[in-house]
Every structure is written in structure tokens, then in C-alpha cells.
């Protein structure tokens, strides 16, 4: 009796099983240490109902603010400018506003890596902001405080950096 074909089959199946095991382990390692983990961690815990509107009313309803990043799409590690437009709630442009910028990553507890500043009032309620840079992918908050016409109010924009 010749048993060698069966033995050969066994050997092939052991080899197939071994390769499959290696592939599964490699995939698991990639997921834990590689792209799987890093791509999901930048979005993990981000509230699903975040509003990414670029025009928002300030918290007390005093102003309406529009952000216009000069970088589109927004990406990390690039110093760039923004333009802000400030209006009253009735839609009148607000000039001579004192504007302060802040922000950070709520999930990481850190602020902006730079201190963006309004460097120029462009008229008609528009302002140039210089020195904006983000250094990590994920969810950022961008806070704008506005003082004008004897009133002060602030607004937070949500950004998703790739
Ligand atoms: Cu961060």
C-alpha cells in the first residue's frame, strides 16, 4: 500500500495552515500597532454630533463669525493665514473689533502650537489672522473672542485635520 499521496496532502495542509496563521498574526499586529490603531485613534471619542459649520453665532448671540482658512483642505504642519468675518446678529459688518484667538485639542488637553494673531483689519468686518498651524490630525477647537461696540462674546469652531 502506498500512503505517500495522503502524507503529501497532510504536509500541504500543514503548510497552508501555517501560512494562514502567519497572515492572521501579521494582520492583528498591523491593526494593534500600525495603521488600524493610528487611523482610528484620531477619531476615537470624537462626539458624533460635532458641528463643523464655518459660520457660527457667538455663545451669547451678539456676533456672527465666519472663518475662512487660506489652506484648503486644512492639513497639518503648514503655517498659514485665515480670514475672519465679523457681523452683528443683524448682519452689519463689525469693524474695530478686538479679536483674540485660542484653541486646542479637547481630547488631548493641549492648546494650539502657535499663537494666531489678528494682524490687519481688512474693512467691511473682515480681519486677517496670521500664524495658524496645526500639528496633529484629529479634532481641533478654534476659539474666537470678539470685543466690539462695548460687548464681548466668543465662539468655538470645530475642525477635523487630516
Ligand atoms: Cu493633540
Walk me through what this model shows.
This protein has 162 residues and is of the alpha+beta class. It has two domains: 38 residues; 107 residues, Domain of unknown function DUF4426 (Immunoglobulin-like, Sandwich), CATH 2.60.40.3340. It has two helices and nine strands, in the order H-H-E-E-E-E-E-E-E-E-E. The longest helix has 30 residues. About 3% of the residues have low confidence. The structure holds copper (II) ion. The site of copper (II) ion has 4 residues, from loops.
Structure keywords:
alpha+beta; Immunoglobulin-like; binds copper (II) ion; four-stranded antiparallel β-sheet; five-stranded antiparallel β-sheet; elongated
Q: What is the radius of gyration computed over CA atoms, rounded to a whole number of angstroms?
A: 26 Å
Name of the top-level CATH class of the largest domain: Mainly Beta
* Helix run count: 2
| Largest beta-sheet characterization | 5 strands, antiparallel
Strand arrangement within the widest β-sheet reads 1-2-3-7-6
Global structural class: alpha+beta
Q: CATH H level of the largest domain: which superfamily?
A: Domain of unknown function DUF4426
Mean pLDDT: 86
CATH architecture group name of the largest domain: Sandwich
The helical percent reads: 10-25%
**N→C terminal distance:** 66 Å
Q: Tell me which ligands are bound.
A: copper (II) ion
CATH topology assignment of the largest domain: Immunoglobulin-like
Amino acid at each position: 500500500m502506498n500512503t505517500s499521496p495522503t502524507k503529501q496532502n497532510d504536509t500541504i495542509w500543514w503548510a497552508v495552515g501555517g501560512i494562514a496563521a502567519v497572515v492572521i498574526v501579521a494582520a492583528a499586529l498591523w491593526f494593534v500597532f500600525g495603521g488600524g490603531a493610528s487611523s482610528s485613534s484620531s477619531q476615537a471619542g470624537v462626539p458624533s454630533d460635532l458641528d463643523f459649520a464655518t459660520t457660527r453665532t457667538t455663545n451669547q448671540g451678539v456676533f456672527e463669525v465666519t472663518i475662512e482658512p487660506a489652506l484648503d483642505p486644512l492639513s497639518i504642519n503648514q503655517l498659514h493665514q485665515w480670514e475672519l468675518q465679523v457681523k452683528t446678529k443683524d448682519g452689519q459688518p463689525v469693524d474695530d473689533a478686538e479679536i483674540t484667538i485660542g484653541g486646542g485639542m479637547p481630547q488631548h488637553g493641549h492648546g494650539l502650537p502657535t499663537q494666531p494673531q489678528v494682524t490687519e483689519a481688512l474693512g467691511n468686518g473682515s480681519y486677517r489672522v496670521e500664524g495658524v498651524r496645526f500639528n496633529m490630525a484629529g479634532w481641533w477647537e478654534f476659539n474666537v473672542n470678539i470685543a466690539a461696540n462695548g460687548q464681548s462674546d466668543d465662539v468655538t469652531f470645530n475642525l477635523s485635520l487630516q
